[in-house]
Structure formats: C-alpha cells, structure tokens
Amino acid sequence: MQQTTLDQLNAADKAGFVAALGDIFEHSPWVAEAAAEARPFPTLAALLAAMQEAVRKAGAARQTELIKAHPDLAGKAARAGKITADSIAEQTSAGLDRLSEEEFATFHSLNDAYRDKFGIPFVICVRRHSKASILRQFEHRLTNTTDAERAAAVTEIIRIAALRLDQHVGGPDRLPVHGRLSTHVLDTHSGRPASGVDIDLMELDGSEAHLVERTITNADGRTDKPLISGRPLPIGDYELRFDVVDYFARCHVPMADPPFLGIIPIRFSIAEPEGHYHVPLLASPWSYTTYRGS
Amino acid sequence: MQQTTLDQLNAADKAGFVAALGDIFEHSPWVAEAAAEARPFPTLAALLAAMQEAVRKAGAARQTELIKAHPDLAGKAARAGKITADSIAEQTSAGLDRLSEEEFATFHSLNDAYRDKFGIPFVICVRRHSKASILRQFEHRLTNTTDAERAAAVTEIIRIAALRLDQHVGGPDRLPVHGRLSTHVLDTHSGRPASGVDIDLMELDGSEAHLVERTITNADGRTDKPLISGRPLPIGDYELRFDVVDYFARCHVPMADPPFLGIIPIRFSIAEPEGHYHVPLLASPWSYTTYRGS
Amino acid sequence: MQQTTLDQLNAADKAGFVAALGDIFEHSPWVAEAAAEARPFPTLAALLAAMQEAVRKAGAARQTELIKAHPDLAGKAARAGKITADSIAEQTSAGLDRLSEEEFATFHSLNDAYRDKFGIPFVICVRRHSKASILRQFEHRLTNTTDAERAAAVTEIIRIAALRLDQHVGGPDRLPVHGRLSTHVLDTHSGRPASGVDIDLMELDGSEAHLVERTITNADGRTDKPLISGRPLPIGDYELRFDVVDYFARCHVPMADPPFLGIIPIRFSIAEPEGHYHVPLLASPWSYTTYRGS
Amino acid sequence: MQQTTLDQLNAADKAGFVAALGDIFEHSPWVAEAAAEARPFPTLAALLAAMQEAVRKAGAARQTELIKAHPDLAGKAARAGKITADSIAEQTSAGLDRLSEEEFATFHSLNDAYRDKFGIPFVICVRRHSKASILRQFEHRLTNTTDAERAAAVTEIIRIAALRLDQHVGGPDRLPVHGRLSTHVLDTHSGRPASGVDIDLMELDGSEAHLVERTITNADGRTDKPLISGRPLPIGDYELRFDVVDYFARCHVPMADPPFLGIIPIRFSIAEPEGHYHVPLLASPWSYTTYRGS
Predict the structure, then answer these.
(1) pLDDT tens digit string along D68-116?
(2) Measured between CA atoms, how close is A285 to chain B, in angstroms?
(3) D144-185 confidence digits (pLDDT tens)
(4) Does any CB of chain D come closer than 8 Å to the CB of residue B137?
(5) Domain annotation for chain B: domains and CATH numbers
(6) Is 0.95 exceeded by the ipTM?
(7) A292 Cα to chain D: minimum distance (Å)
(8) Preceding omega of D40 cis (within 30 degrees of 0)
(9) pTM (2 decimals)?
(10) D219 inside 8 A of chain A by CB
C-alpha cells in the first residue's frame, strides 16, 4: 500500500479509496468498500470505527471468511511469499522469519491443532508481541471455546488494521496504538544526571538474550530517543544493562577492585503494548533503585 | 594432616608438633620446627606469627625453596596427584580440577611464562579467589618486578598457612580468615519481611553462570545460614536471583500479566575475601532497591 | 510490690502469694487468691492465664467491681496520691502527670462523659499508648455499646496485669509484652555503615515534639541499644532525625553550600506496641531511602 | 519602570533608552547612558554585558558611588519608602518588610557594623536568598577584606540588574536568571503515578516554617506548574510535605492504624538559585525514596 492522507482518502473516488485501503484488512477490500459510504471522516479514529462497524455488520459468515484470509503464523505461505507485504513485515518484526527448525515445528503443530479445533487460522496482532508471548497466547487461546476464539480473532484483526492505518495514513492525527519505553540514570553519589552511561536493551527469550537497542545517556541522564517508540511495545521479557562502572570510573569515584557494581541488569516484563514504561536507575557505586515510573 | 587443638600442640613433644603442622607450609616442615621453640602459644594468631617470623628469618634462599615447594596451579603434578592433600582441596575449591582444555592450555602457558620470568612457580591463596580472579591475578603479577613478586608469593604463602591452621587446629579461638555473604528480603508492598522467597546465588565466569547456593528466606526474610560463610569469599563476580514473582503471587498481590518484575537479578562483585557482604533486596512488585549493607 | 520470682511464688504459702501479687489487679487481691489454688505454675504465662481465668469466672458483678477499682486517668485521685504505686508510674509514663490545664480539662470532661454513659471509670493500659493515642482511644471507646466497652475494659486490665507481672516477677521466662524500635544508617556514598551519626527520636503531639531518646550510631551503623526496648512501644507518632550532614562533612564528602540534605527527618507511627519496628536510613548526600524493616 | 522590548530599546532615541533603563542600576542612569552607545543589541545578554562593561570601565570612584546608591537592607529608607519600586519589591520578596523587632535590630546592627568597616551599604541580590541566607551572607561577608567586599558588591549589583532587565524587557529571548523546583510522586505499591497527593512546600527559618506553595499532583504524579519557577530559587532550607496517607486511603490500600507513614516530610536546601531542583518521592505505605533529580 502507498502512503496517503486522510484528506486524500476523503477526497478520492470510491475506487481510489478502496485501492488505498484494500489491504488494511488482509485480502478483504470489501471492508474498505463498506466504509467508503461513511465518508468524510473527521479523524483517523472515525475511519477505523467505520471499518470496524463494517466488519461487525457483515455477520458471522463473512467474518469467518475474513479470518480465513489471514496466513498461518510462520507458515508455508509466509515462507513462499504468498501473503501481503504488511503480513510479511509484521511476522518479521517478531522474528517469526528467523525460527529454528524446532520452533518452526512447534508453530506448525500449534497451527494444525488450532485449525483442527476451530477451523480457522490463528490470528494475532504480531506487532504487540514477542515470539515468546505469541507462543504463550497460542497455547492459551487453544483452550478457548469456539465463540470466544472467533471474538478474539476479530479483536486481533481490528488491532492489526489500526496499526496498518497508522502506518499508511500520514498526518498529525494519530491512533493510540504506540507505546513508549524510556529510562533515566541518576547519579546519587554526586546528585546529578549520569551522562555517557552505555545502555543495552535486551529482549529475553528463555535463556537467550538478543539486543534490541544500544544507546547512551545524554547530559540530562536520558537517552535522546526513547528505547522503543513509534510502535506498540512487544509483550515480553526484557533486560536493561547499565554500564555504571565505566561511568563512575570516568568520574574518578573511588571504587573497590573489582568494583561492587559493574553492569547493572534490570529485568522486567512489558504487559501493555500501548503503555508508557519509564524504567529509571538511581545508582551510587554501592546502591541502586529502580521502579516503574511514568 | 589430622585435626588437633592448640592445647595439644603446646603440650606435644617437638616431633609431635612438627608432625602435626609439617604441611601447613607446603612440603616445608622446617617452618614448624623453627616455630616449635616459641611455645607455648596463647592464641592461634601467636602461632601463625611465630611461623611467619620463622619464614622471615630464614632468608632469601630458603624462602625461594619454600616457594618452589608449591605446585603449579592446574599443573601436571596436580593432575598426577603429586601434591599435598591440602593443595588438592584448595585447587578443587576454585574449580581448577574442572578446566576445559582451552583453560588448561591458558594456565599451562601462564605457568611457563611465569617460571621463565621469575624462576619460581606462581603461588596464590586459591581459596580467596574464583577461577576468573586467579587468571586476572596471574596476568597482573606477570608484570611485577622479581622482588615485588617474591614478596607477593610469600604473602600468599602466609595466607595459605593461615587457612590451613584455621582448618586443622580446632577450638573457639579463630583466625580472621573467613568472610560472610548474606541477604535479606523486605516486602515494601506489605511492610514486612518476605518469607519463602527462593534465591539462587550464581558465580559468573564471563558469559557462564554456575550455581553456588540455592536457598530460601525464612520468616524474618533472611536465610537460615549465610549464603557463604566459614571460608574466605572468593574474589569474583556474582549474581543473586530472587524469585519475587512467586512470592507476591502467593501473597495474592495484584500484578500485571506478565508481572513487571519476575526474577530480580542483583549482580555484584566481591573484592574483600574476609569482608562481610550484606546484599539486601527491598521490593514491591513495581520497584526495588539494593545496596551493600553490613 | 516487691520483686519476686516464679519459684518463690510457687513455694510461698497462700498469704505470701497473695501479698506478693495482690496489686497485680488494682486493689483486687481476690484475683491472686483464686489463682493461688492452681499452683505450681510452670511459666509466667500460665500464672497470667490462671489470673485471667479467675477474672472470667468471677462473673459480671465482680468484674464491674474490678473495673471500678481503677482510678480515673489524670483524675483527682491521681493528683491526691490515692492510687497504687503502679498506677502512678503508669500514668507518669504517658505524661499524664504533666498535663496543661486545657488537657486536664479535656480528660476531666471525657472521664465524666464516660462515667455518665457506662457507670465505670475509663480503663486503658497506659504504657501501650502516647497521650495523643489515649485521647483518640477515649473518644473512640465512648462510641461503644456498654457490653463492648465492659469487654474492652477487661482486656485492658489483663494487659495492665501482664505488664505488672512482667515487672514484678524476675527470671529468664518472660511474657511477650515488650516491643522494640531500632534503626541502622547505611552510607550509600561509600558503601559502608555510617558511624557517629547523631540521632534524635522525637515523639510528636500535634505540632509539638518532645525528645524521647538522643543517641549515636556505632561502628556498625546501629545504636548500641534499641531506641526503645524493654517496654511496650507507645502507640503514637514519632520522628527520627538523622544528622547526616555532620557525618558526611567528617567523611570529607564534597557537598553543596548549604548541603542538599542536612537533618533528615523520618516521620512514622507505631501501631503495634509489642511489635519490632526497624526503621533504617540508606543515605548519600543527595538521596535517601527508608522503610519498615524487621 | 515600564515594560519594554529589546526592539523598542534598540529603536529608541538615547533619552528614551535611558528613561526606560535608568533604574536597572539603582539611581544610576549613567550606566544606561554609557551602554546606549553600543546599540543595537542582538540579545538581552548583549545588553547586560554592555551595562556590565560600563560599570567596569567607570573605575573605583564611580563604582563606590553606585554601591552607595543602594539602600540599607531592611533599613529606615525602606521603611520610609525612599527607595526604588524595584528595591521595595525585592526586599519584600525575602520577607524583609515583615521582620520582628528583634530581627530588625539584628539587621540594624549588621548594617552599622558593615558601614563602619567598609564605608558602603551591604548590597546583595535579595531575590536569590531567603531571610536566613541573607543573614548568613551578611555575617560571612563582614569577614571579607575591603577589596574582596567591593568586588562582591559589584557582582551582586550585576545580578540585581540582570533580574531587573529580565523583568522589564519582554520577549522570547531570556537571561538565564531563573531556577526551577519541581517534584513527582510515584506509587511503588501500584506501579503508577500518584495523583491527587496534597503537597505543601514550606520554607524553614530556624524552628519556624512558612508556607510557600500548596499544590496537588495531577494524573501524571506531577504538579501542573513547578513549585517555584520564573524567578531565582531563594537559597535556603525547605521542606516538602506529601500527604501520602490520604492518597493510599483513597486507593483502599490496607494500612496499619495509625498508618506507618502519614505526612512524609522531605527536608532539603537549595544552594543554586539558577539551578533545576527535582525532588521526587517514590512511596509505598511502608517505604520511600527521594533524591535530587533533574
């Protein structure tokens, strides 16, 4: 899909509108077609609401069709490139394109179990999850009733649509689909922001950790950009690693040999993809405090 | 060596005294012989001082002999069982009997470089170190002058002797050769000690971690025994892992899903083997503080 | 009453037993008389239980008599010296002998209102309360029903008796009637206990504060004795004042002028007279943490 | 003086320029006259620099005249209204118009001692100080040499001038003469900002405290406006009082009776009038942390 604006969408003819938004709902331009009637939309939220209403009114059969239009997660279609560009980017964002053979087998068997039980593919708004969290959701949702699960699938489809709208429709008016993860390092030895502290943000997956972001604090003890922003925060387990020992050494603070604190790891989990997580560190060479701030 | 007491040592004939303490200094009963004259000893510290004085008075040549009586660290003699039982136990305590081939090669090459430069084996009081710390010391001491290094070797031999005396001579009078590592978990959500918190103490060796102690907090939020006691604390890097999420779940504290804090890792280093390290955790489900206490 | 021991009480004839314990229950030697039959008592708790049982079995009329045997708080009898020595000491402990005219009038009018409503004097175990807390209890208990209030009075009489027994009967076996308030100061700037920190413990009474204890931390950052021990902790409002600025100045720690932190006040309330309150301070010149510990 | 702008000052004729800025330096329009030549000024800082240069070049005699043009602090001229409107407002800001007779006598005697020693009035940029801090400065500066003290007086006059310029010359370009005091309350019991917490900021003067600002936290746990801003922070002692007990009660958090923490007092001093002081509170009902943040 091309980048567009709400003004262009409101001004376009119906065909243009549908062409622009046909893939907001996977392979289902009929949703855009139905929503086109409700133009003009004063806000992006109003456009999303109209599309959501179109899905609701379409009834059970078409909803099932809509669900079935989605590819399996980490499935053969994805491997063969037979899914929308958005779907590819989404699955990539959670690392579903880099599965080990064992993980691939796990997904394959969960997909089969899910289709056997519910007759539809497993749909989830991948950008709101880490790989580990997708697997937990998968296992959990397999225990649902058919009705609960169809409702869950539609909810996820709306979340996917909201993120696709947010990406494809530019302008100052935004949907509340982004989270933010930030930090701040205070030096309680000297009573000032700690600048120049190297920070690694790791995503944890069982015993493995992979680097999400490497950054450094500025003169105010903050990072120039949030650690994660402009997207939902993937539900999952994380570790911030603060290199305070280099910082205090540069400040010529007397320390033990080896120093009592070296790299400080702060391990935490994100549960609200659209939330604001502020995870600060107050540290001296002998003590530290962290908390969920705002 | 057999277990004995200061009273027995003071009462023994000279041969008995030397038989009892002949291996306090590796393969060097002459130290015990010299110290025997100074009996009776009011304290274990007085006995150690007499032995230290004997070494000092013996002069450079015999000191060199004493140093040379020590085996290489992780050397062939150790592998072949040709060292004192104490030396075996000491090297085992730091994991020197479980080296990978690569580590064995590193020690081998350091031993060679050290002997080439100084003409003596590298002596270190192994019980005061982790394997990583021994390697750091090895590399650091290779940069010493010959005189400084001979002095360092004698200091280490006295430390080894003090620990051997402490082990072989029973009774209430002790030498200050032990450290202590303890913890305490306070629940700042409910304002009381956190009991039943599972704690793992890991020793860190680069990217590897191995379990030193697995324990659990009692009704007072402490562990029944210190995490390490009755021995020097090996200089090295450690991580305490506190399972606060299980604790708060048992207390029916409302938490996010997944909870913000799960296993809390506190990473720290020990620099004083004879020190008291108290590393407490004050935690709510959203915040924690740690510090070096006493 | 004279100091005695449980052994002496068990061995005494009945008259001696009653003479020794006749005033444990105010002007009511019949309680001791009834309990004397149940000798010997293996523990102080068993003796208290026997006395409590004697009160229970005595029935409503004698219980009323027992309640009426108590003086008014801060009443004319106290001013005229017509109450037991224990009662005098107890009222003095909460400052009821040092009331302003206004406070005296308040107690007088509460005493009258209470006697009018319930026909008995207001009885409370004064040693478990501050003056402010006694007034709060007085006002609260005036809202009780007669039955609830008679039960409350008997409970307080048992508490008074327990404290009198604890005071008059010596020996290693104690009743759990004491609380403990302690503190600990950690210097997070240097990672060690803060020694030589001056501490004032103030009791707060509205906008007034009066000194309960002035002390100083020892080499371990603790006080040689608890701030309060060997008695119940009076329910009330307190403030610990830590003179950290003198401490950090003596340590030659660079500080602002004037220093950011000078005297650190920690204000807290005690609700459990028999509890252990540990109120530590972790401080750098720029940051501090406190909590209820154990 | 009227409010003006830098553009108007640059465009005015010399008489207009001097009329507008004649009292920036107390009763000394010659400073404005001298600076007028250097127009146009690209920034307010350039204008201030030109005036400062005029003072510097004027030499010792005129500088003494300039110093003498200032009124005594809390002096008779102030009481009689014979000083500039700016001087009145400045002295009022530090409470010098509300002195007790005793304080008035203290100032009177310090003024006399100062004039006796240095032959000039004591000049200080009052807006950067509390009353207590002015007295400390007064006593301290009385110990200076005459040369050091004349330099100190000129420095203070430049500070006064900078603040007067900042007040009288409008526009987006500002001088760095303001400080900021802010706070933030985090609820570590629930892991979110604490909203609706009543906060009193008190200025402490010995054993007295007077209210500077009464405010309340918003949904983000902050106050809508900084506690102090738009002016220098008066050097002095302060106490923030956070009513956490009302907050936690509204959140239905279980607490002791009386609650362990009620009003939390954070006592601190400000040393840098142009600094940013952020003094946050992280609190559960049983624990809290504060620090100088940024």
Answers:
(1) 999 888 776 666 667 788 888 888 888 888 888 898 899 999 999 999 9
(2) 9
(3) 999 999 999 999 999 999 999 999 999 888 999 999 999 999
(4) no
(5) 4-170 (1.10.3330.10), 179-290 (2.60.40.180)
(6) no
(7) 6
(8) yes
(9) 0.92
(10) no
